[in-house]
Amino acid sequence: MRKLELPPDIKVLEAAGALGDNRVRIIESNAKTVAEVTSSDGSRTYRTAIIVKNGNVIVAYSDDNGTRFRGYIGYPIIALLMIKNLLPRDTRLENALRGVKWKQLNQKFKRYQLTKEYVLKRASTVMPVEEIQEYVRRVMSRLRSYNVIYDPRIAAKI
User: Fold this and answer.
1) Which residue range(s) make up the domain with 81?
2) Which of 44, 35, 33, 40 lies closest to 14 in space, CA to CA?
3) Phi, psi of 55, deg, nearest 5
4) Which residues sit opposite 32 in a β-bridge?
5) Within 10 A of 82 (CB to CB), how many other CB atoms are there?
6) Three-state SS for 11?
7) Sign (positive/negative) of CA torsion 86, 11, 132, 41?
8) 135 with 90: CB under 8 angstroms?
């Protein structure tokens, strides 16, 4: 078990895109919420689970690279927290981010900042960039209020 760090803020946009594309499939929703989150190019399916403890503690598991290897709250966990109403959602933004091929863009630009600029420009046809940035700030602020603990033991029952 270890505390997960805050993600790069682009992961909020990636989570919203996953919701817009309907790439999050809830498998179980009771004390533990379990989902499969398909990558934007369809090549991977991430197993993701959360258990909300009392207060601001969330026990989480996801086998995405950001969560497992980089130690931050990956976009599949963020998307699941959005579905569970633990993080704000914006359906206009989710719709604006439909069809974004995140892996392809990250490989092309090789830096999250460049990918983010591209995605913001694309989404700005639907809503102002300032609104998108404010939404990302709200989600990141809410994420800061949680103590998200990575625990692979909860994956055993997925």
Assistant:
1) 2-157
2) 40
3) 70, -135
4) 51
5) 21
6) helix
7) negative
8) yes
pLDDT one-digit tens code per residue, 37-60:
999 999 999 999 999 998 799 999
CA–CA separation, 71 and 41 (whole Å): 23
Number of domain units in the chain: 1
Percent of the chain residues topping a pLDDT of 90: 93
Beta sheet of 32-38, edge-to-edge order:
2-3, 147-150, 57-62, 45-52, 32-38, 24-29
What lies within 8 Å, CB to CB, of 38 at 6+ separation is 18, 23, 25, 44, 45, 46
Q: pTM of whole model > 0.90? A: yes
Which pLDDT tens digit goes with each residue over 97-108? Answer: 999 999 999 999
The contacts of residue 28 (CB under 8 Å, 6+ apart) are 34
